[in-house]
Specification:
mainly alpha, about 180 residues, 7 helices
């Protein structure tokens, strides 16, 4: 009997796939399908010239500075003994405001260099004197280990608010009847 003589030594073996490999394959396939859909949608919109442009919301620098000052006031840093941190934070907020409002590198400059720049800028001349007192007090606390009275800490916050509020750009006047508003 020749047929019985020719046969495999062992039956073919099947290797079962672990469940996690099956899940990776399923998730990968779904991910590729979703990614392909978005690429196709982008390509189709681009081909038609309709790329979605989300409008950029620009928050004026004075609103950002006032919000940060409000937040700092609620933190009660100097009331909890963190006077140096308080003065560092309040001056950083004002310096950041100067950078965004007047377009110069106030965060990288020492206080003594900021004041001449402010006095040079026409719209900042109203705050030069306040800024001088403000940075003078802050420098005393930060560098001379000066322990200010509570009134000085309150005054720092008031000066910071005043600096920002005095330099808020004036809104353009609406044109009256018969006038043309040229900008």
């Amino acid at each position: 009997n020749q047929l019985e003589d020719i046969r495999d030594v062992k039956e073919p073996m099947t290797i079962p796939l672990p469940w996690w490999i099956i899940m990776v394959i399923i998730v990968g396939t779904i991910g590729l399908a979703i990614g392909g859909y978005y690429i196709y949608k982008y390509w189709k919109n681009r081909k038609e010239g309709k790329v979605e442009v989300k409008p950029e919301i620009i928050i004026p620098p004075y609103e950002i500075a006032l919000a940060k000052l409000d937040e700092l006031g609620q933190m009660n840093l100097w009331q909890n003994g963190k006077v140096k941190e308080y003065h560092s934070e309040v001056t950083e907020i004002v310096r950041e405001y100067f950078e965004k409002r007047f377009n110069f590198r106030a965060l990288e400059m020492p206080s003594s260099e900021i004041l001449p720049v402010l006095s040079y800028l026409e719209e900042a001349k109203v705050i030069v004197e306040i800024a001088d007192k403000f940075f003078g007090n802050a420098d005393l606390v930060k560098f001379a280990k000066f322990e200010p009275m509570p009134q000085v800490n309150d005054e720092m916050m008031k000066q910071a608010y005043e600096i920002v509020k005095l330099t808020i750009p004036a809104a353009p006047k609406p044109a009256q009847e018969g006038e043309v508003n040229v900008q």
